[in-house]
Amino acid sequence: MYELEEKGYLYLLFVVPMLVLLFLYVQYWKRKKQVAFGDLDLIKKLSPEKSLFKPTFKFALVVFGLIFIILALVNPKMGVKMEKVKRQGIDIVFAIDVSKSMLAEDIAPNRLEKSKQIVSQLINQLGSDRIGIIAYSGSAFPVLPMTSDYAVAKMFLQTMNPGMISSQGTSIDQAIDLAANNFFDKKDKTNKLLVIISDGEDHSDNAQNAAEDAQKLGLKIVTVGVGTENGGPIPLKRNGVIESFQKDQDNQVVITKRNATVLAAIAKSTKGGGYIDGNSTKTVLDYVKKVLDNTQKTEFEGMMMADYKSQFQWFLGFGFFCLFLDIFLTERKTKWVRKMNLFNEEKNNIK
User: Fold this and answer.
1) Whole-prediction pTM value?
2) How far, in Å, are 24, 96, 244, 308 from residue 66 at the CA level?
């Protein structure tokens, strides 16, 4: 297995075909000038020591040297071994509300972006825990299955938006059921934590019942409320510019408010769970850290890991070798090669 650390340098390889075309043009231009100057056979006899092959060989050395140096900049890494890594931690699933109400800007930049910031900061302070991500509104959607790859988790996190789920509304019970039945292995004794980030506008009455069922499976729930009690309108934007606001059937602007009561009730339905105000990221980080510290870690096998090692030094060495060889190589014919007449260069000198 391998990986390329700095892939951007590969664009420098486009220089190679340009150099080849330039070299061919120069050779064509030289030959054209020689024909204009005089007879080619006579010119060859006047410069018997000049090799026809070496200029091309020297150019090839420069090209290969350049290619090897570019590959060294890319820094290829080769996997020398694969192994299973045992870790200690817990399983954490982040369920993020992506309903349209999360676009309200009563908290900067808006509720959804604030939720992403919170989850990203929480991931930063994790050690060896496995994490998964769920998006939900009118229904729940698995964004990322359980993994130990935090970089991938952050990448998927940034793609979340209200358009990823067609059914609108907010049904927190859907997220709880998905996490309990699809993300967490019932046979696995690893401690489980579900972190729900939402404004609490639940359009169903089943969230508390779903939380109680999850409690029976040993699932602990922490709810994080984003938004304000006063609330705000839901902006409708085009190219980042607000054109209007979401309206109801009576053509009145909808004001969406955070419902902390619903979120607190869901969290209290599970042992060890709790509700926290998400408008302060530091408060959420401190609270979740406290929950994690009070949760017993379990040993589990992590994903297959490749031990990659940089191999740039080999490419750099070959590159400089080609360039140094070009410097010390002249365009005159090598005596012993000249005697062998490999390229039939002496045919015109035979009397």
Assistant:
1) 0.62
2) 18, 49, 56, 25
